[in-house]
Amino acid sequence: MTRLLYVEASPRKQRSASIEVAQAFLAAYRAAHPADEIETLDLWAIDLPEFDGAALEAKYAGLSGTALTAAQETAWHRIRALAQPFLAADRLLFAVPLWNFGIPYKLKHLIDVISQKDVLFSFTEQGFSGLLPGRKAAVIYARGLDYGPSAFTPAAGFDFQRPYMEMWLRFIGITDIAAITVEKTLFGPEVDTEARAEAKRRAEALAKDF
After folding, report:
1. Strand spans (E) along the chain
2. What is the pLDDT of residues 101-113, one digit of tens each?
């Protein structure tokens, strides 16, 4: 059975452009792939562990080959459990708003916790090797302003959202990455209605063959 993991990074829910487009993607995906399993990871509905204390000690114990203590084992088990949906998924969908030129802190928190050696990547003689090869990822990016090359906030200088996400996905082994962007969401429905509609059309088309 093919599994799709949907990661929701916006707390705005019904008012979120990224979630609205992601829901259009999911509806089209379900229609095209009715036998597939879809799991949702709402980052605002789970308790993300702090990466300090026993968890941090477990990381460095693992890097040095030192046996973990009971407390470190417990902390590392929680990290592995949080990463498991990513390892089990064949497809990944992210709904990601842009916050202060980057990604929401909840998503960064998740990435910082689960991006660990022998969890999502390993070391080889050639360097880092991601542990999620062969997967597909789609990312819905929502932005309050226009990030075009001639805009007030051009992507080249202000966008650390998409470059970061795609670098991280490649780092953990995913190279088949699709992106859908909806912009000018700060200006209300008079401005962003068509942008949302176009993004949903693109998401629905992508979902059918995803």
Report:
1. 3-8, 37-42, 91-97, 121-124, 127-130, 136-142, 176-182
2. 999 999 999 999 9
